[in-house]
Structure formats: C-alpha cells, structure tokens
C-alpha cells in the first residue's frame, strides 16, 4: 500500500510518497497562487517519479498553509505535528526543531515521548524567512542557491542591524554602495537571521538534539550561522530538509492505513 503527504506552503509545494515506510518518491516545486493547483501539480510529479497513479495511493494527508485546499487529501494535520513526525522519522533522538520556511519561522520543543511540549511561530514579518533571502539575492544580483557558498568565503562579516525587511533592504543597499564585499554582506545576513531564529528557540527552551529544517536549511551558510547562534552543533537530517513536513504528513497517512 502507498501513502502520500502533501505540504502546500507559501513559496513551495512538496509531496512525498511512502511504501512500506520507505520514501519511493519526493518532489518540490514552486507554489502556484492557487493552493489546489499547486497540490495537483506536485502530486502528479511525485506519482510519476514513483511510477504510480492516484488510484494506487490508499491515503493522502495534507499540511501547510494551503492544507484545506488539497482536493485529494483524506485528512489534514498542522505543520507543527507534521514537522515533528517527519523529523523523528529521520532522527528519533531529536528534541528541538527549528523550521524556517518561505514566510514564517517556528521553533518546536519535543518531550521525551516524542510529543510537542512547546512551540512558537514568527509569521508576522518576512524578516528571518526564505522570502527575506530571496529579496536580498535580488538586491545583490546573486542566485539564492549560491548564497551559502558565497557566505563561506567571507573574511570580514558585516553586521545587519535592522530586523524589518524594508529597513534591512535599505541597509544592505547602503553596504553595497560603501563597497562592502558581497560575501561579507551575505554572511552578515545569515547571522542576523540565525540570531533571530535562535532567540525564538530560546524562548521555549532548546534541548539537544537540534535540527534545522525547511528550505533555508539547505543553505550551508545559514546552517553554520544557526549553529553558531545557538552555540551548539546542529544535526543534519538524512534527507532533503525541505520535505520534512510532507514526510510527516505521509507518515500520518500510512499510520491511518494500519
């Protein structure tokens, strides 16, 4: 039996298909303005990757901000519980999850039994999210996928003091005009974002092991900055950190069949 999870976020849509507890297909695409269309597109691509059709999927669980608009989902779960379920699927020892997505950031603390103990969102401002990185990439005329490697070449990181996206954008433009190196600006940006997320996590208590998930976790510079901001070594999940939510949803779907 095959089960699927579909995570419709603000910037990307993700789908994961499981068979006998193993990932047989996973897909990430840019989200469409209509969540239902994003769901259909990402699911069809995942099915194609697995060599399956929709009739082969016994159960689908939806999650993400567009979860209530997934036409083929039998049920939905919150992003919080799906992030926990997906992270624990890859690393049962995880106790703290920092999830930085397209337009929000959240920190989740898990108790010894694997249940959500506390969590906190930052969804009021784009600062400290993937969208913030996209804006800065456009300003600096670099590819967002290259920002991690660029920042690792920094020798004199600059300080980004503004927390607001609008003011930070102005500050970054000023730094460029002052002749600051792009690598130093990007490194400073990563540390500013990491410090913001670390503060969020500390407000609910940080316990090891700690993982960083979401699309931003694929940025090597951000991953390093996050560890430095927390003062500890982050654990790397064994799969694409961007599909953790979809994986968690797929786990719930598979469990419902059992």
Classify the secondary structure makeup into a structural class: alpha/beta
Provide the CATH superfamily of the largest domain: ATPase, nucleotide binding domain
Number of strands: 9
CATH architecture of the largest domain: 2-Layer Sandwich
Report the span from N to C terminus. 10 Å
> What is the global morphology?
globular
Write a short abstract of this structure:
With 258 residues, the protein is an alpha/beta fold.
How does this model look, in words?
There is one protein chain. With 258 residues, this protein is an alpha/beta fold. It has 2 domains: 1-91 and 238-258, Nucleotidyltransferase, domain 5 (2-Layer Sandwich); 93-236, Nucleotidyltransferase, domain 5 (2-Layer Sandwich), CATH 3.30.420. Helix content is 40%, strand content 21%. It has 8 helices and 9 strands. It has helices at residues 35-50, 79-90, 130-140, 147-151, 165-177, 182-202, 220-230, 244-257, and strands spanning 2-8, 12-19, 22-30, 57-63, 75-76, 96-100, 105-110, 116-122, 210-213. It has a 5-stranded mixed beta sheet with strand order 3-2-1-4-5. Strand 6 and strand 7 (105-110) form a beta hairpin. The longest helix has 21 residues, at 182-202. The model has no long low-confidence stretch (mean pLDDT 93).
């Amino acid at each position: 039996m095959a089960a699927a999870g579909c995570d419709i976020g603000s910037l990307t849509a993700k789908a994961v298909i499981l068979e006998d507890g193993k990932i047989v297909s996973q897909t990430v695409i840019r989200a469409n303005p209509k969540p239902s269309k994003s769901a259909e597109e990402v699911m069809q691509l995942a099915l194609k990757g697995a060599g399956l059709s929709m009739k082969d999927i016994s159960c689908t669980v939806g999650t993400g901000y567009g979860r209530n608009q997934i036409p083929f989902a039998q049920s939905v779960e919150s992003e919080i519980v799906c992030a926990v379920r997906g992270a624990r699927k890859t690393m049962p020892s995880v106790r703290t999850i920092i999830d930085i997505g397209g337009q929000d950031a959240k920190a989740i603390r898990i108790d010894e039994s694997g249940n959500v103990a506390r969590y906190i969102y930052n969804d009021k401002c784009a600062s400290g999210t993937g969208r913030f990185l996209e804006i800065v990439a456009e300003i600096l005329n670099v590819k967002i996928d290259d920002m991690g490697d660029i920042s690792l070449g920094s020798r004199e990181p600059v300080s980004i003091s503004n927390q607001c996206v609008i003011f930070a954008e102005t500050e970054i433009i000023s730094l460029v005009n002052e002749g600051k190196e792009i690598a130093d600006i990007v490194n400073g940006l990563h540390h500013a974002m990491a410090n913001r997320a670390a503060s969020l996590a500390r407000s609910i208590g940080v316990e090891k092991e700690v993982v960083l998930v979401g699309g931003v976790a694929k940025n090597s510079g951000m991953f390093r900055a996050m560890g430095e901001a927390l003062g500890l070594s982050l654990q790397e999940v064994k799969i694409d950190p961007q599909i953790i939510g979809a994986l968690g949803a797929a786990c719930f779907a598979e469990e419902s069949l059992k």
